[in-house]
Structure formats: structure tokens, C-alpha cells
Specification:
heterodimer; A: 351 residues; mainly alpha; 17 helices; 66% helix; B: 818 residues; alpha+beta; Alpha-Beta Plaits; 5-stranded antiparallel sheet; extended
Chain lengths: 351, 818
């Protein structure tokens, strides 16, 4: 019943919404980032973070710290929060929360498969996986030789199974195929998530469709840019775009035929929301595009908190935390490698 | 007025006089000075480096070192806890050591511990492997035997003979050997055996099935012992499996899956003798390892115990050091970089003590230059500091929970000490229940010393903190219970005979017509004869209701009088004339008059209807009172009182804002220019200076504020008085509930001759008394008393937007840790 969430929302999800809003207020602020950017060593960063919500997670780390430890512990905090919320959630919120992790699952699958292709140790690869995207039999992925086996052996048990229907081929796994698989999976995942949110209806559908559409469009642009100059045909490229979003369908037609970055820019500038993103970039530049997209995403995610009684806040919170962890990673890398002049290149302020 | 000024000062009434001080400390004696001040705990430092982030401050390295040390100490504590030892301070503790020394010691200990742990871990790993191997051998041999039960008996015998001649030189290194599938004796079927976590077996089997397309045979059996998981330090159940398969490709696949699932594979020879031989070997090595492990654990435990002796002391020491450096970080360097400048608040009485401590610090650190300590002026208002003891602190907490008093504001806690338990008792009047509470409170107080040192649960903590409140509450409950004459709702003839007796000896009409009065009134409290009579409830209700109103009016008057003392103290004559006086008039003209009527009615025994009197006082003030007249001149008095009350309302509403406005314009007549910067400081010194008014004064705001205040007071007078009726309501509920439990449970059960029913009845009664009456009712009466104090009493005078005095003190440091 659209517009009547206020009546019934709090019965099941009020507690968790309060929790997630509380978590959100623990996100680092611009003042925190300013302080962090001035840090001289990783110990300084640890010291500063110990005054934030990350404190308990970092306080028992012995002193010569590494960037990976910081990131690992920060991620652990996010995972703990996620698990807490998931264990408290009832349907359909629990499904919604699980949907959030599927993206990581896809990334992990791709990571392991690529890793084994390059003869890397499975345990080493497992450590690199995002803990949110873990599933039981993930280590077995290394056994599979081709897509069909991959599906039949492992993925059929995971929630990713339905997304695989489009990419079951008996082709051998190579880098190109894996990348296509990733994008096909992601496409199917986004569409499924979008449908799920539409089914939930109400403010959730409204807000999530906006956020997911942005995600889909961003992926479309990235696919286009990354596939310029590869042997991917236009039709194949066209197939990787998700079937919703602001660019769907006409923008996709145009993107599919783009041959360089300026053509992409030409297409995107027809869409007012993306005009501002591209206006920041100079011609022929695609380096800063990621950051521009991240900034826009963060802005949209923050807006999701302006409305009450919907599930978008959970999605937004998880994404914001992930962005925060990316920021922390960048800052600590810069500090560790003495590249402080580049600190501001990739940090996206959240507030 | 003279008399009021010359009253002896009350300690708790006003918070301690504070002063803003500046310290200029030479660098060499800074650390010592701060730690002496921490021991003293009477100076609250102000952070002068607010704009600096933590790692830009001066003593950041020391703070980091302290944090690192406390991390190590936490590690030790954790280890000691894991080892199941108790960190007990050694009686003969060693002499104090320097921080640097401690740092080295800690590093040494940590290094040692980590090394020991890694050794133990390695040993444990080997031990686990051997244990698993043993299990696999045991279980797998069962499978192998059963799978080839009869057909190959002879064959095996032959093989046995062959192998028995060997001297098994290579078996010792069997563990290090690569997994080798058993020799394919028959039809190319081979097997892999191993062990896996029980929780993973299902998915493991499914995966194997899928990977080999069903061309395998999976056998499993639960392992007998649980195995310690090194990562989580928990015992996990494991399952032994044997997979039979054929083909080389299947083998690589299966091994890969085993690896992916974290299953450990061990080679099991198909041959029985060899198997037995290996089993023996494994067992002997296991027992060997066990002794090594035990020795290692003992060694580690010894090391940990020696650490444990001093752990508490070290933790305190490091915590203090860290606090000292944190405080030092709040100080500023002066221009010469040779001195640290600190600012803070301290109570005036502590000035000499602080000076002494500082002198001691100078002396002890052999500094050439003394520490300069002088009083400064401050713009912001000082913190609030009450010197409480263990008796008053709980009451002060009750007040502080609402809001910390402004600096030197009248402190309601002084009165709360008595009024709070008393109002509680009015609602909880039963001397039986009171005695139960008293016993509980006495137990808490008697064991104060013991309970104070140990850690309590949150509920017990609360109970223990309020033990003196509980004590007073119970004493007052006994008192009120005696007045209500209720002992678990049963009346007693404690103070002599009842004043009433039956009309005749048979007492048959006692319930219908009633009793007659035969002697003087019952000397103390309610006459026991009321109990069970037809008019019991109307009588008690009327009594308690009137009592509540009397108590309420008295307490509200006390609140308004306190506002007078506040105004006098702060020299605010406007508040006295235009707030205190009309408020007194308004409240007492209406509800003071009602109280007067109640008292007169009680004394005279008149039958007048007080509702009627009060209501018609407003509706038709000039009408004759008729039979409701209580005293001569009542009608005229009522009209006068009503007029006074009506006048009081605009009196408290209008004059104050207008007078403030006039004062403001007078003060700033002709001064259109702002004050120059240099003169700012002097004006700042006076708390109620003109400058603040100039900035703050806004007529409409002031007027609206006053309007809100007046309306709140006028409406509040009615609603607050009504609110005091909760005293009656809760007391009624309490006595009714206890009557129900007594009559409907205990007496009903006692009516039966059956001992079991009687016991059950007694048990139900006891539980209901303990949980419902003693716990729930105590809580609810407590909450209502709390509300009466916070809202009805304190809103008359209490602002409560000050802030607490938080001195830098080592004593409070240890509290925070827990």
C-alpha cells in the first residue's frame, strides 16, 4: 500500500531502521577525513580511528600496522554490523539484505576463478575475498575447468544460480570470458534486485529504483569505456547492459556504438543528471570518472536517509560504509607510501 | 531579612564556590605536578588545544607508548583468562618501577609469551594431526575390513606374511610422506581417507558426488574425540571419511575438493599389519607429544602467573600515565617553550591543597623555578560541584538525573533527602512490607564494604547505589504503615483499644447499622475497627485524598520559597517582586485556601462539601454558602482570595518584561556605539554585565518567555495539585492489592484443612508479596515519587542546566575502566 508504510513499517523493521540510522551517524565526517589526511604514519591513523567507532576493532592490533590490517578490521566491523542486522531481520527485509551481498559474491567468484586460472594459491585468494560475499563452497570453485562445470559443481547451490542461466557455455575459462561472465552475472543480478524492489513497492521501490538505475548506468558506461578497443562486438556489448535505468533503451543503443571516450561523453551529456558528472572532466579524460561517479553515488545514497520507512537506508548504509573503507584504504596507502600529495585524489567525503 | 542572611550556610544547598585558575609549570616538573594533581583530584583542566587533532599534540608519542603498553597488558590479561588463571595481586608486591623499565619488561614478557604460544601452537598442530591420523586409522580400517570382508581373507594373509618380514624402517617418516592412495588391489578401485569438520560433511559429500558424477562411494563415521580447533580455541566434532573411486582424474579432483573444504587426508595402508604398526607408532608419538605439550603449558602458566601477580598494578600504572599525558596534552606551551600553561577550575577550598601539591612537585623534581598558580577571571559559568558523602550521593544522583544544577543554584537534593522517601512511603504505607524493605536495605548496608569492592550486575549495582535511599524509604514506610495501620493489610491494635464497640454483646448488627463510639479516639493512626466495615473505603479515600493535597500544597510552596532564595542569592529583586510574590498569592489563594478548609473541616468535624465550596467559589462567588459554611466571614474571604488570585495573574505576566525593557533602554541611552575591544575584558568580568544584556535582550522573546512561564504556572497550579492525588491513588492500589492477596489467597487457602493446599496458598502469597508488592509496587511508587520531585516540585525553582565538575583524578580513572 503505497504511502501507508508509516502505519505498519515499524512493526517489523522499525528497530533495524533505528539501528542502521545509528550506524550511519557513526560514519566519518569531513572533519575526520581532514584529520586523517594530515596523519604522518599509520599509527596516527590508528590513533585517530580509535576515537571513532572503529576503536574497539583496532585497539588490540600490535604497533607496526599494515594497510591491509586496517582495512581488514574496518571491514570486519561492517560485516559484524551486517550480520547483526541480518539476524534481526524478518522477511522481506532479510531477503533484501541478502541481495546486497550478491554483488560481492559475484566479485568473489570472479576473483577465485581468475586466480586459479593464473595458478594462484586458493587460500591466498580466499583471504582477498570480500567477507560479505562468502559462501560455503567458495573454495571449490578452483576445481571447475569451464563455465558449465562451474555452474554444475558449485554455483547451483548459491543464490547466484539463476543469474547463470544466460552464460552457461562450455567454453573454457579465460580472462575475457570471465570478464563477460562477471558483467552478465551483474546484469542479471541488478535486474533481479530491481524487480525485487519493485515488488516490495512503496518508498523502497521508489528510492531503490533510483539508486539501482544509477548503478546500472554507471556499469553501462564502465563497460563501454573498458570494451573500447577490444574484440567485443557491438551486439555483445549491448547484451551486457542492464535492461533498466535512465539510459535504457535509447542511451544503450548509442553507447553500444561508441568508439572512444568523447563519444561516450556525447551520449551521456544528453542526460541531465549525468551532465554534471561529465562537466567536471576535461575532454579525453577518463581517470577521474570513477571518482566523479562515486561522488554522485554518495550524494544519492545520503539522500536515501532523508526519507523514512523504507529499506533503501540499509543499502545506502552498506554502500556508504564500503566507500568509507575504500577512503580509509586510500588514505592509509598514501600515508604508508609517503604519497601524501595524492591523498585527496580518490577520497570521497561522505558528509 | 537580616535573620535569613545570617543563617548558617548549608553545605549541600549551594554548590562549592569555584574559581578559574591558571598554572604555569616549568617543563621539567610538569609530569610530576600533573600526577600529584591527579592524586589530589580537585582540579578540572580545560582543553586549550581544542582545535588540534589528537596526534598533533605535544605528548602524542608518550600517549601512543602508553596505548601500546596497555595493549600488551590487555594481551596478558586475555592470555591469563584463556589459561584459566586468576590475576591476583601478590601480597608482597615489588617496589615501584619506572615507566621505561616497565615498557621493556612488558616487551620482554610479550616476546616470551608469543614465542611460547607459537611453539605450543606448532606442537598442538602436530598433535592434532596425529590424533586425526589415529582416528582415521581406526575408523577407516573398519570400512576397509567390512568392504572386503570375506573374499580377500586369504589374500590378506599372504600379504601379511610378506610384510611381516620387513623391518619397517620407513614407517617413521610415513607422516611426512605424500598422501598415497592404497595400492589398487582389485579392479582399479582406489580410496582417499581423511577427516573433516562434522558441519561440512553434507556439502562435502554432495560436492564429491557432483564432481565425480556419482562414480564414487562415500563412507563416513563420527570421530570418537573432539579436536581442538587452533584458530577458535574450541573443541570441534569431526567426521572420518573414506572415499572410494577409480581413475586418476577423479583423484586430483577429489584432492582439490578436500583441500577446498579444509579436509585433512591421511594415508591408510590397506594392509592390516602395517596399519596396526602405524597405529602403535602414532599412539606412542601421541603420548610423547602430550607430555611435551603439558610441560609447555605448565611453563606458560608459570610465566603467566608471575605476570598475573603484578598485572593489576601495571594496568593502574599505565592507565595513570596515560591520563597524565592526556592532561599534559591539554596544556599549552608558552612563548619561551620552557613552560606549560594550563587553565582549569578548582573549588576555592582546594586552593591551598593544590598549592601544596604543586610545591611538593617543584621540590621533588629539583626544579629551579616554582610553579605559578594564580586565579583568573573566566567568561563562562563555573562547573557545579557538590561535596556529597555516601549517604547524600544517591539523593544528589536523583536530582542530577533530571539536570545538573546551575552554579550555586539552590539544590533540591537537600530536601529530597527527606521528602523523597516520605512521599514514597505515603504510597507504600504498610509496615509489614516496610520491614521487609528495611531488612533488605540493612543487609546491603551491613555488607557495604564487601559489596563496594566487587563487581555487581547492573540491577544489583542500582540497588546497592541506592541503599541509603532504600533505608529511608523503608523507615518512612513503617511510619506511614503504622499511620494507615496496615501490616500486610492486616490492622493491629498496637496503640491500645479501638474507640468503637458493638451496640450489644452479640455484635450482630455491626456490619449493617454500625458501631458506636465508646472511648477517646485511637491515639495514633487509623482505628483498626474501620477495617472490613462498610464505610472503610470512603473513609480511607477521603483521608488519603486530603492528605495528598495537603502534602502537595506544602511541597509546592516549598518550591516557590526556594525560588525566592534563589532570587535573593543572585540579587534579582525583579524575580522576587514580579514572580515570587504573585506566585505565592496565586497558589495560596486557591489551593492554600483549600488546605485551610481541609484542616478546619478535620478539626471541627463539619459536614461541609469541600468540592461544592471550591467549585462555587469560582462559579458564583457571591452566593450564600448555606450548609457548607465552615467559619464566619467565609463568603467575604472567598471573594477577596479570588480577587487576589485574579490580580496575581497579570502581575506575574506583564511587569517583568516591561521593566526589563525600560532598564535596558535606560542603561544604553545615548550609547549607540559598540564598546571598544580593550574594555571588553572588564565588562566580561561581571556575570550580569551590561554587555550581555545588550547582546541578548529582545523584548518580544522576553515577553513570550514570561508568558509561557506564567501560563505554565497558572495551569500548573491546578494540574500539579491534581497530580499529587497520585499519592492517594497508589496508596489505595497498594492496600487493595495486599488485601486481595491476603484474603483471597492466604485466608482462602487456610480455610481448607488440607496441608498441601495451605502450603500452596502460602507459597502463592509469599511470591505475590515478594514480586508484586515488594518489587513492582516499590518500583512504581519510586517512579511516582521521582515524578513528583522532578516535575511538581522542581519546576517551581530549578533550572538545572549547569554542568558537573569533573576533576582530573586518578580515583575516577579506575572506575571508568570497569
Amino acid at each position: 500500500m503505497y504511502g501507508f508504510e508509516a502505519l505498519t513499517f515499524n512493526i517489523h523493521s522499525g528497530y533495524l531502521e533505528a539501528i542502521v540510522r545509528g550506524h550511519r551517524s557513526g560514519l566519518l565526517t569531513a572533519a575526520d577525513y581532514n584529520n586523517l589526511c594530515q596523519c604522518e604514519t599509520l599509527d596516527d591513523i590508528k590513533m585517530h580511528l580509535s576515537a571513532t567507532e572503529y576503536g574497539p576493532y583496532l585497539q588490540n592490533e600490535p604497533s607496526p600496522l599494515h594497510t591491509t590490517t586496517i582495512v581488514e578490521k574496518c571491514t570486519l566491523k561492517l560485516v559484524d554490523e551486517y550480520k547483526h542486522m541480518l539476524s534481526q531481520a524478518t522477511e522481506p527485509l532479510s531477503t533484501f539484505l541478502q541481495y546486497i551481498t550478491y554483488g560481492h559474491m559475484i566479485d568473489n567468484v570472479v576473483l577465485i576463478v581468475t586466480g586459479t586460472l593464473h595458478e594462484r594459491d586458493v587460500h591466498e585468494l580466499l583471504e582477498k575475498c570480500h567477507p560479505l560475499g562468502m559462501f560455503d563452497s567458495i573454495a571449490t570453485l578452483a576445481v571447475a575447468q569451464n563455465m558449465r562445470e562451474l555452474y554444475r559443481l558449485v554455483l547451483v547451490d548459491t543464490p547466484l544460480a539463476p543469474y547463470f542461466s544466460e552464460c552457461i557455455t562450455s567454453e573454457d575459462l579465460d580472462d575475457m570470458n570471465i570478464e563477460i561472465m562477471r558483467n552478465t552475472l551483474y546484469k542479471a543480478y541488478l535486474e533481479d534486485f530491481y524487480d525485487f524492489c519493485q515488488k516490495l513497492g512503496g518508498a523502497t521501490a521508489e528510492i531503490m529504483s533510483d539508486l539501482l538505475a544509477f548503478e546500472a548506468d554507471r556499469r553501462a558506461v564502465n563497460i563501454t569505456i573498458n570494451s573500447i578497443g577490444t574484440e567485443l562486438t557491438r551486439d555483445d556489448r549491448r547484451k551486457l547492459y542492464s535492461n533498466f535505468g535512465l539510459l535504457y533503451p535509447y542511451g544503450h543503443e548509442e553507447l553500444a556504438v561508441c568508439e572512444d571516450i568523447d563519444q561516450v561523453r556525447g551520449v551521456m551529456e544528453k542526460y541531465p543528471p549525468y551532465q554534471t558528472i561529465f562537466a567536471k572532466l576535461s575532454y579525453g579524460e577518463s581517470q577521474m570518472l570513477d571518482k566523479a561517479f562515486y561522488e554522485e553515488e554518495v550524494k544519492r545514497l545520503c539522500l536515501a536517509f532523508e526519507q523514512q520507512f523504507h529499506y533503501g537506508v540499509f543499502f545506502a548504509y552498506m554502500r556508504l560504509r564500503e566507500q568509507e573503507i575504500r577512503n580509509l584504504m586510500w588514505i592509509s596507502e598514501c600515508v604508508a607510501q609517503n604519497q601524501k600529495s595524492r591523498v585527496h585524489d580518490s577520497v570521497v567525503f561522505i558528509f | 531579612m537580616e535573620y535569613l542572611d545570617n543563617l548558617p550556610p548549608m553545605d549541600l544547598m549551594r554548590s562549592e564556590k569555584m574559581t578559574f585558575v591558571q598554572l604555569i609549570i616549568p617543563v621539567e616538573s610538569a609530569h610530576r605536578a600533573i600526577s600529584y594533581l591527579g592524586q589530589l583530584g580537585l582540579l578540572q583542566f580545560r582543553d586549550l588545544n581544542d582545535e588540534k587533532s589528537p596526534f598533533q599534540r605535544t605528548f602524542v608519542n608518550q600517549v601512543k607508548r602508553c596505548a601500546e603498553m596497555s595493549r600488551k597488558l590487555r594481551f596478558f590479561k586475555d592470555q591469563i583468562h584463556k589459561a584459566g588463571l586468576l590475576p591476583s595481586p601478590h601480597p608482597a608486591s615489588q617496589p615501584d618501577i619506572e615507566l621505561e623499565e616497565l615498557e621493556m619488561q612488558l616487551a620482554e614478557h610479550e616476546h616470551e609469551l608469543i614465542e611460547m604460544n607459537s611453539n605450543t601452537e606448532k606442537l598442538q598442530q602436530t598433535y592434532n594431526e596425529l590424533l586425526e591420523f589415529k582416528m582415521v586409522l581406526q575408523k577407516a580400517s573398519d570400512f576397509l575390513v567390512s568392504s572386503r570382508s570375506n573374499s580377500t581373507v586369504q589374500e590378506r594373509e599372504m600379504v601379511e606374511n610378506v610384510y611381516s618380514n620387513d623391518d619397517y624402517a620407513d614407517t617413521a617418516s610415513l607422516l611426512e610422506q605424500e598422501m598415497q592412495p592404497g595400492p589398487s588391489v582389485q579392479s582399479g578401485v582406489r580410496f582417499v581417507s581423511g577427516i573433516i569438520c562434522k558441519s561440512k560433511v553434507l556439502t562435502f559429500e554432495r560436492m564429491l558426488f557432483r564432481a565425480t558424477r556419482g562414480n564414487m562411494f562415500f563412507n563416513q563415521a563420527a570421530a570418537d574425540d573432539q579436536i581442538l580447533d587452533p584458530s577458535s580455541n574450541e573443541m570441534v566434532e569431526k567426521t572420518v571419511f573414506v572415499v572410494f573411486f577409480s581413475g586418476e582424474q577423479a583423484r586430483t579432483k577429489i584432492l582439490k575438493i578436500c583441500e577446498a573444504f579444509g579436509a585433512n587426508c591421511y594415508p591408510v595402508p590397506e594392509d592390516v599389519t602395517k596399519r596396526m604398526q602405524i597405529t602403535r607408532e602414532v599412539s606412542s608419538r601421541l603420548s610423547e607429544l602430550e607430555t611435551t605439550l603439558d610441560a609447555g603449558t605448565r611453563h606458560r602458566d608459570k610465566a603467566l602467573t608471575s605476570i598475573g601477580f603484578q598485572l593489576v598494578k601495571w594496568m593502574n600504572m599505565v592507565g595513570r600515565e596515560k591520563a597524565v599525558y592526556d592532561t599534559l596534552n591539554m596544556l599549552n606551551f608558552d612563548v619561551t617553550k620552557k613552560c606549560l600553561v594550563g587553565e582549569g577550575w578548582c573549588p576555592i577550598f582546594a586552593k591551598t591543597k593544590i598549592q601544596e601539591a604543586l610545591q611538593r612537585a617543584t621540590f621533588d623534581s629539583n626544579s629551579q623555578v616554582g610553579i605559578i598558580f594564580h586565579v583568573m577571571d573566566a567568561v563562562e559559568s563555573p562547573p557545579t560541584y557538590f561535596r556529597t558523602n555516601r549517604f547524600t550521593s544517591a539523593f544528589q544522583e536523583i536530582v542530577d538525573a533530571y539536570g545538573v544544577a546551575n552554579y550555586q543554584e539552590a539544590n533540591p537534593a537537600v530536601y529530597t533527602v527527606v521528602t523523597f522517601p516520605f512521599l514514597f512511603a505515603v504510597m507504600f504505607g504498610d509496615w509489614g512490607h516496610g520491614i521487609c524493605l528495611l531488612l533488605g536495605a540493612l543487609v546491603l548496608i551491613a555488607r557495604e564494604r564487601k559489596l563496594g569492592t566487587q563487581k555487581l550486575g547492573s540491577f544489583m549495582e542500582m540497588l546497592f547505589g541506592g541503599r541509603y535511599v532504600l533505608l529511608l524509604m523503608s523507615i518512612f514506610s513503617i511510619y506511614c504503615g503504622l499511620i494507615y495501620n496496615e501490616f500486610f493489610s492486616v490492622p493491629f491494635h498496637i496503640f491500645g483499644e479501638s474507640a468503637y464497640k458493638c451496640r450489644d454483646s452479640s455484635c450482630s448488627d455491626a456490619r449493617s447499622i454500625g458501631l458506636i463510639k465508646s472511648r477517646d479516639p485511637y491515639p495514633f493512626g487509623v482505628d483498626p475497627s474501620w477495617r472490613g466495615s462498610r464505610t472503610e473505603l470512603p473513609f480511607l479515600n477521603s483521608l488519603k485524598m486530603k492528605l495528598s493535597i495537603l502534602l502537595g500544597v506544602v511541597q509546592m510552596n516549598l518550591g516557590i520559597i526556594l525560588s525566592y532564595f534563589n532570587a535573593r542569592f543572585f540579587g534579582n529583586s525583579l524575580d522576587i517582586k514580579y514572580q515570587f510574590v504573585p506566585q505565592m498569592i496565586f497558589l495560596n489563594c486557591l489551593f492554600g485556601y483549600l488546605s485551610l478548609l481541609i484542616v478546619i473541616k478535620w478539626c471541627s468535624g463539619s459536614q461541609a462539601d469541600l468540592y461544592h465550596v471550591m467549585i462555587y467559589m469560582f462559579l458564583s462567588p457571591f452566593e450564600d454558602l448555606g450548609e457548607n459554611k465552615l467559619f464566619w466571614g467565609q463568603g467575604v474571604l472567598q471573594v477577596i482570595l479570588l480577587l487576589c488570585a485574579v490580580v496575581a495573574v497579570p502581575w506575574m505576566l506583564f511587569p517583568k518584561p516591561f521593566i526589563l525593557k525600560r532598564l535596558h533602554t535606560e542603561r544604553f541611552q545615548g550609547r549607540t556605539y559598540g564598546l571598544l575591544g580593550t574594555s571588553d575584558m572588564k565588562i566580561d568580568d561581571e556575570p550580569d554585565s551590561a554587555r550581555q544584556h545588550q547582546e541578548d535582550f529582545n523584548f518580544s522573546e522576553e515577553f513570550v518567555h514570561q508568558m509561557i512561564h506564567s501560563i505554565e504556572f497558572v495551569l500548573g497550579a491546578v494540574s500539579n495539585t491534581a497530580s499529587y492525588l497520585r499519592l492517594w491513588a497508589l496508596s489505595l492500589a497498594h492496600s487493595e492489592l495486599s488485601t486481595v492477596f491476603y484474603e483471597k489467597v492466604l485466608l482462602l487457602a487456610w480455610g481448607y484443612e488440607n496441608i498441601i493446599i495451605r502450603l500452596v496458598g502460602l507459597a502463592v502469597f509469599a511470591f505475590a508479596t515478594a514480586f508484586i508488592l515488594l518489587m513492582m509496587e516499590t518500583l512504581s511508587a519510586f517512579l511516582h515519587a521521582l515524578r513528583l520531585h522532578w516535575v511538581e516540585f522542581q519546576n517551581k525553582f530549578y533550572h538545572g542546566d549547569g554542568y558537573k565538575f569533573r576533576p582530573f583524578s586518578f580515583a575516577s580513572l579506575t572506575d571508568d575502566d570497569d
